[in-house]
């Protein structure tokens, strides 16, 4: 019996690809992060950032917290801040799906929408101005070491244990880069030969959750030496694969998960043998008002 909803964060299942992977000598597993109570991989980082901040005294119950988000981190922070009784404002571009906005508000967070013309960078600038001028405390997932450490402590060990140490390749979309940084650090400590593959969008693509950051916005937690290879996927490839994951594997996820799966399958086709784990970072139900599954 769980004492808190927060006890259900982590320990998500691995699901073997039965249809999409055509290489009989490669096992491709999908790490089902939508099974977290907040519906995404970001539950892990949000919990570690808030819990560790409270334990160190960096965050006080009386603080006004703020964070810019494209969606999943905001939902996770709203849920966990509500459990801890914290006051949080979440800042998102106005073109975020209404499911995300409504979910954050349901958990009790204040949601501020910024112009979609300036994207997540504009939301980050707005949050920074509130910190500088109004005394807010920023969680700052892009520079907060508790982000990647959440995956060092949980995601990496789970994957290592569930594959019985046989994993050869780890594939993850790169947004804040917390997932790939923490998981890479742990897996490389167990076996330096595990190849870490980061997924980025092609230059003409817009894929929520996968970014090529301008230099001035590059997450401070990112360490390029922890990624062995990057693979680019297009927006259309990510959309098509999200639909195929749902229809052919029964895995209902968002566009960034589709992008990671594109890279994982492309990789599987090139290997003589191997065990690949690809992150499915969230659930598809928070995209139903978009045209992803239209």
Automatic annotation (TrEMBL):
N6-(pyridoxal phosphate)lysine PTM sites in chain numbering: 42
Domain Tryptophan synthase beta chain-like PALP: 6-282
InterPro entries tied to this protein: Cys_synth (IPR005856), Cys_Synth/Cystath_Beta-Synth (IPR050214), CysM (IPR005858), P-phosphate_BS (IPR001216), TrpB-like_PALP (IPR001926), TrpB-like_PALP_sf (IPR036052)
One annotated GO molecular function: cysteine synthase activity
EC number: 2.5.1.47
SUPFAM superfamilies assigned to the protein according to its UniProt record, in alphabetical order: Tryptophan synthase beta subunit-like PLP-dependent enzymes
Catalytic activity, reaction form: O-acetyl-L-serine + hydrogen sulfide = L-cysteine + acetate
Pfam family of the protein (one): PALP
Cofactor list: pyridoxal 5'-phosphate
Keywords, alphabetical: Amino-acid biosynthesis, Cysteine biosynthesis, Pyridoxal phosphate, Transferase
Binding site for pyridoxal 5'-phosphate: 72, 175-179, 256
Gene Ontology biological-process annotations: cysteine biosynthetic process from serine
Pathway as given in its UniProt record: Amino-acid biosynthesis; L-cysteine biosynthesis; L-cysteine from L-serine: step 2/2
Coiled-coil region(s): none
Family from the record: Belongs to the cysteine synthase/cystathionine beta-synthase family.
Designated name of the protein: Cysteine synthase
């Amino acid at each position: 019996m769980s004492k808190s909803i927060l006890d259900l964060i982590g320990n998500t299942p691995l699901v073997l690809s039965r249809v999409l992977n055509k290489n009989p000598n490669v096992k491709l597993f999908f790490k089902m992060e939508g099974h977290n109570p907040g519906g995404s991989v970001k539950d892990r980082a949000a919990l570690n950032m808030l819990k560790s901040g409270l334990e160190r005294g960096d965050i006080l119950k009386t603080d006004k917290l703020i964070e810019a988000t494209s969606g999943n981190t905001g939902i996770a922070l709203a849920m966990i801040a509500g459990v801890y009784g914290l006051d949080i404002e979440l800042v998102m571009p106005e073109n975020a799906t209404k499911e995300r906005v409504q979910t954050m508000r349901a958990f009790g967070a204040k949601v501020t929408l910024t112009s979609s013309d300036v994207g997540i960078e504009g939301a980050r600038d707005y949050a920074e101005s509130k910190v500088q001028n109004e005394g807010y405390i920023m969680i700052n997932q892009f520079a907060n070491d508790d982000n990647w450490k959440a995956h060092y402590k949980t995601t990496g060990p789970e994957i290592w244990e569930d594959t019985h140490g046989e994993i050869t390749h780890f594939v993850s979309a790169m947004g804040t880069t917390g997932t790939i940084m923490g998981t890479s650090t742990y897996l490389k400590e167990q076996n330096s030969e595990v190849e870490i593959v980061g997924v980025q969008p092609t230059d003409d693509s817009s894929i929520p959750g996968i970014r090529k950051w301008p230099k001035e916005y590059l997450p401070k937690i990112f360490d390029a030496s922890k990624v062995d290879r990057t693979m680019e996927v297009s927006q259309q490839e990510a959309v098509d694969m999200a639909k195929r994951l749902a229809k052919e594997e029964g895995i209902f996820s968002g566009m960034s998960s589709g992008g990671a799966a594109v890279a994982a399958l492309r990789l599987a086709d090139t290997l003589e043998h191997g065990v690949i784990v690809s992150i499915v970072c969230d659930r598809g139900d928070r995209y139903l008002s978009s045209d992803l599954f239209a």
